[in-house]
């Protein structure tokens, strides 16, 4: 290195600084304009194609996402170019740096590939309730690299797409409401089933319920109770509400009929103290 | 870059835009036509080859699936080609990008290879009840890359084929109904087995049952009860129903005969308060 | 692309279509003939070499399997060849596609290698009862790529061979029947062992039993009972039946002798209410 | 090696020593100046862009972090250069050393890539309460390579970014306070729900609470109690406090109304000593 | 392909068929001769070198194993050679097929390397009782690729050597017999230890016991009993037998001395019904 | 090989032996001198830079560590060089040996990279109490490749740095003391909280305590008790001591006030013997 | 192959046979001599360097180990050389075989690298009591590839060094003896601590104890007892003995003072039969 040509270096620095400034200004102007344009265009398309709300949000988010990353990518490449660090040879090289970068970046590619297919196969839409990558919640954003879920406890989960092995979508059709009622071993099973079925019949008119509810039979002989199972098909996301209402109604019906819902039993054998 | 040849760039942009528009139009026309053609052709073939319904749906889904992906692939390649980004050299190159893409895409290849063999080996048909990749449900679609299962609780599971290690198909033959009945330690085992066998004999005529049911013997000596096991072979998907009916009938038979189904026992030794 | 030479393209398409048709016809004719020939040849060989039934089925299945895959492979190669897509350069290339395919296909090679050794080392025969890859059942088919097990509950398990880490074959020799009997702490151990040994002696003549049964001693001092262990060697697959019969006989013998099989005990210390 | 040219070696050593000294001096001077400059610049930018405190700290930490590592990198390269060990050929080579280094360093690249996206996607800000990589706590620093969390028990967790699979951010919106109250099976459910709802209504004015609280219904029929669930939306980080207050108020309200919060029940069946 | 030179193809086929036949005949003759020769040679060597039985069987099995695989390898290579498929270029190539095969076969190499060292380091001999790869049993065969263990329940485990991480050999020296005896909290510990030590002294002459048994002291203060531990060194494989005998003798000795072996205790506090 | 030129070989051997001897002597002299020089230099630097004791020990250990490995490396290279085995081509080659070595050594590089960053980021100092790689203890030495922790039970843990995923440093700030006190369901919660707060106030003056302690409220409604939580911030490493003292004082205070700390409760329902 | 030059082949075979014989004879002579020489040399060095016994055995074992493997390596290479199979090109090649071997052998290299550092860093000596790779026991041999531990139950564990992630050495300094004593809730804590401290003081003179024992305070408030913790530092490997003696002495001291060691408590609430 030649430490002496200070003047040349300075003028050089000034020139570089100017270019960087220009670059940043362009970036700052282009970014918000592009984002607005995308949002607007998306609105038009959604209206004409009659996309539902969730799908529209999904696509809009994604396009914004792609736009941001592409812009960022060009920004970085240009930035480095101005500084005189060409990215191409580094990316093309196969030395250690290349190897390390290649391995390190493989996660990124996996994220994008997985995300691409999640979108293409319509596995997830914004506002769906899904389980993915060990977390569950309402989808807030489906990004190129990361999916954001809002958990029921308010937590926002950021899940890189590659960690999403299987998507369990809980909002693609009716859901099942399932209530297990345990009755005493000495009760008459037929009578209990009839009482529960009567409760079920009262619920049949409920708007939230699509099918059933029905008593399906003796699910198991527990250690202290005979378990009867009731199943219904409900509107999606309303299964918990229906279960709560069914549980309350059936408990009260059994109480009214004097049928025991037993506590854990224990048979005691007294042994003579030896 | 030369920022000044605006005119040339514009005319260039227009030309590119026109080509892209044409491409999109072609895509929009070809896609639905192809899909209908496949469905129709499939219908004819299914009739002639007397394929059962499940197999027919499986193949139809798959062909549509393949068709969509192939079309998409050509769409993307052409799209990039129009934009002047040739895909071939990227795919052939072995630099960092290539490495990262290769590694990242390896999951995709695994998906397709696994899916191909699941189909070829007829492991799964649409409407089968299977366990795969840690989820179980009715197969809704068997795709090139993803298998869709509808869980009993209504959830739709999207499982990339590579995560399907072993397929457990519960609809390839008769299924077993198994009921364990615990009787008191002081009861006569022979008498209890006779009573249960009588119940079994009543079920023997049942259309849902293919073999048995039969009392196979003393399965275990539990901490509070002697466990007798009853086994039957049933029509597929009806095993739970049969188990519920058997359970109810056998519980009532034991009750009628005055044979105790015991609660958990505890023998109490009173110790003099020291 | 030249969109104008429609005539040439058409005649080209017709020619290709004809070849494909021919290919499919040949395939449809050759496949069943080959399969029958293999089955017949296998029958002759099996008779002459005095192979047992399981081994014969294993080999026949495998040969049919290999035949199907080889045929399929040539079918696909020829098919692609007719369409003008040569497979060789793709397979030989080392670009991204090659890399991805190589990695993705490595599972397939593992399957075949593992399957090959399972066969060569005679680890599994059709109709054996084995545990492999986390599932257990009767072997229905041992394929080049996949092993099929029929679980006792009727489920058919398809297990890619590579997921079979260790094979546990439960039908290669006699099996052990093991029954643990708990007696009260206040009973005489010698007397109880004598009574159980008497039961064992009655079973000694049983055809299903190869060795024993015998009382081996005090296996453990449980929290409420003294556990005596009885062991026998039985004909394979009959161990559960023998265990059930032994359990019933020994329980009844202890009852007759007035020896207690205790419930869980608890010693209660009453504390003065403070 | 020529062991004799001691003089030349000495003068050489002196020259090298001098250069190293100069390098260290430059480093010692540049480092603190650079850090101060960054902090100041960050302060100005934060004011003008109206960044919130957390984001400001995040960016400042990160810039200092990047600055330190870049400086360190140039320091090491220059250092080795003075000693006559050029780094470039080693990094470019593909021999064993290169291979080992490439593999070994891949973790480092993963750290940086992941960290970069955590920042870009604003998954974490300093002072957020997050769960990441199996630990949870308040973010103290978000670095290029490592994220530091302060656990509630005072422990400082250093988590390399690559081990952060999914980020769960508990401070991105309101949080849920959830209290389950168990009442006796013999109590009137409607009455209990009314009492609890009254308590909820008293809390409605609470500043910390954004929505609710409300009794949602019978969550489950436990083995000894009927469980009623109360849910509220609270200011972030105040959910535990609200839960504690709700729990106390509702317990006291049930006590006042004479509604039982039951202990675990057991039904005892006395058996005649045999 | 030229479909017309049928004559040439036929004569070609005949020639190939003849060669294959010759190959198979040679194989069928050479295989059994070689196996017998190895067994005999092994017998001579074993006698002269005074190898113990287990080692002899191990080596004989292994040599037969190696012989079989080498023969098989040459058979396959020759077979493919006759069919005109040279194996060498495939094995040497580095295309996709090569890559896939290389990765797929790496398990095989791992098996052989591990097996080689298990043998060289004498970790296992035939008839040893070992735990390896998650299974335990008596070694039936130690092969080049697979180790066969016979479990105590009669199952034959085939474990590819690569899955054997650590070998636990239970037959390389004396084994420990360990019995824990719980006595009541109100008993005199010194007295109980003396009584147990007396039992131990009676066992001291036992041929199966190499050292001890001895009472080592108060191992723990359990929730209901004071646990005394007795330890002995026994002949290998006899530890369970010795433990059973010790357990019986010590239980009877404590009974004779009137020292309580307590059931689980519970102190009950009666609360006034509120 | 020429077995006859014994004379030449001998003189060769002598020459080599002499060189090796010289090498060993140099090594034996240089090693201790270098170590002492480092320790001394470190002492001076530590004084001038006012490093705290832990940091000083950390750096000294590390420098000695690096010195030892560098010396060892040159020793081995020279040793092999004298024997005529040049290391360079082996390290540069890319054959099988190279591949195996490269993969095998990658763990070593990971160790060093991780260790380097643990040091640079000051995650650990000697004498810190940390949890790392699944073990916890006081740091005894932070090496280039291995970190040594002294567990509280006296065990010395050697942890290769690569297995240290996240470092949890328990000595970087105050620690939390947390005590949960369960009181009876029939007690007055306000009164109990007042009593506990009084105890807390007495502790407020304690030197070991930095903040609090305070009663934060009703943490949970247990199955038999109402749990009150007390939290304090203490000097690091003194949290357990403070917790023990708090626990004793609060237990005694509740006793004095006659507030019950309940045993597990059970409500018993007597059932008429059927 | 030319099947006719039988004479030439025979003379060739004889020549090869002779060379192999010579090789085996040389091996059989050199091996034991080398081993004895190493043992002797080691004895001298150990005396002069005053190595402790464990270190001496470690080094001797290791040298014998290295010697055996090096000899074996040359034996195999020469053996193959005589048979005309040169190993070098195979090892240098990068075809499939090379790839597979390289991957397969990578475990071997890992073993050696890890073993080398375990030795160099003196993590383990023969006769140490360590936990490594999931097993614990006394080190019997520390080899180049495998470490042998003798478990306390007599099992000999062979652990390939690569599976040793972290070494926990329990014989590098004093060990902790820890005894928890539970006393009744109604007992006076101060009095109980005084009594226990008295017992501790009696033990203070014990040779096996290096520090303490001391009562550190109320460790926890259990569900039925107040737990007091006693800690001591003991000579290594004697901690269990000391714990047993402490436990006995403290139990007897509490008994003498009439302080209750409580059984699990349960508070019973009688409910009127409804």
UniProtKB/TrEMBL annotation, chains A, B, C, D, E, F, G:
<dbReference type="Pfam" id="PF21088">
    <property type="entry name" value="MS_channel_1st"/>
</dbReference>
<dbReference type="InterPro" id="IPR010920">
    <property type="entry name" value="LSM_dom_sf"/>
</dbReference>
<keyword id="KW-0472">Membrane</keyword>
<feature type="domain" description="Mechanosensitive ion channel transmembrane helices 2/3">
    <location>
        <begin position="65"/>
        <end position="106"/>
    </location>
</feature>
<feature type="domain" description="Mechanosensitive ion channel MscS">
    <location>
        <begin position="108"/>
        <end position="172"/>
    </location>
</feature>
<dbReference type="InterPro" id="IPR006685">
    <property type="entry name" value="MscS_channel_2nd"/>
</dbReference>
<comment type="similarity">
    <text>Belongs to the MscS (TC 1.A.23) family.</text>
</comment>
<dbReference type="Pfam" id="PF21082">
    <property type="entry name" value="MS_channel_3rd"/>
</dbReference>
<keyword id="KW-0812">Transmembrane</keyword>
<feature type="transmembrane region" description="Helical">
    <location>
        <begin position="12"/>
        <end position="33"/>
    </location>
</feature>
<dbReference type="InterPro" id="IPR011014">
    <property type="entry name" value="MscS_channel_TM-2"/>
</dbReference>
<protein>
    <submittedName>
        <fullName>Small conductance mechanosensitive channel</fullName>
    </submittedName>
</protein>
<dbReference type="InterPro" id="IPR049142">
    <property type="entry name" value="MS_channel_1st"/>
</dbReference>
<dbReference type="InterPro" id="IPR023408">
    <property type="entry name" value="MscS_beta-dom_sf"/>
</dbReference>
<dbReference type="Pfam" id="PF00924">
    <property type="entry name" value="MS_channel_2nd"/>
</dbReference>
<dbReference type="InterPro" id="IPR011066">
    <property type="entry name" value="MscS_channel_C_sf"/>
</dbReference>
<feature type="transmembrane region" description="Helical">
    <location>
        <begin position="62"/>
        <end position="85"/>
    </location>
</feature>
<dbReference type="InterPro" id="IPR045276">
    <property type="entry name" value="YbiO_bact"/>
</dbReference>
<dbReference type="InterPro" id="IPR049278">
    <property type="entry name" value="MS_channel_C"/>
</dbReference>
<keyword id="KW-1133">Transmembrane helix</keyword>
<feature type="transmembrane region" description="Helical">
    <location>
        <begin position="91"/>
        <end position="120"/>
    </location>
</feature>
<keyword id="KW-1003">Cell membrane</keyword>
<feature type="domain" description="Mechanosensitive ion channel MscS C-terminal">
    <location>
        <begin position="179"/>
        <end position="261"/>
    </location>
</feature>
């Amino acid at each position: 290195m030649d430490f002496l040509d200070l003047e040349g270096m300075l003028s050089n620095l000034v020139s570089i600084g100017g270019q960087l400034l220009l670059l940043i200004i362009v970036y700052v102007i282009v970014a918000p304009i592009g984002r607005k344009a995308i949002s607007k265009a998306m609105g038009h398309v959604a209206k004409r194609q009659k996309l539902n709300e969730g799908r529209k949000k999904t696509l809009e988010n994604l396009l914004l996402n792609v736009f941001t990353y592409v812009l960022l990518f060009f920004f970085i490449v240009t930035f480095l170019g101005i500084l005189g660090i060409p990215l191409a040879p580094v990316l093309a090289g196969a030395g250690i740096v290349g190897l390390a970068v290649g391995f390190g970046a493989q996660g990124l590619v996996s994220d994008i590939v997985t995300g691409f297919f999640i979108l293409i196969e319509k596995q997830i839409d914004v506002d769906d309730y899904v389980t993915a990558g060990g977390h569950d919640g309402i989808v807030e954003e489906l990004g190129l690299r990361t999916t954001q879920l809002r958990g029921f406890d308010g937590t926002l989960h950021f899940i890189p797409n590659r960690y999403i092995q299987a998507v369990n979508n809980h909002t693609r059709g009716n859901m099942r409401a399932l209530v297990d009622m345990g009755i005493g071993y000495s009760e008459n099973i037929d009578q209990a089933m009839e009482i529960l079925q009567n409760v079920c019949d009262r619920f049949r008119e409920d708007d939230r319920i699509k099918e059933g509810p029905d008593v399906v039979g003796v699910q198991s002989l527990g250690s202290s109770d005979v378990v009867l199972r009731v199943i219904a098909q409900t509107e999606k996301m309303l299964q918990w509400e229906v279960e709560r209402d069914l549980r309350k109604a059936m408990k009260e019906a059994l109480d009214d009929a004097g049928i025991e819902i037993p506590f854990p039993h224990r048979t005691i054998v007294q042994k003579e103290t030896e």
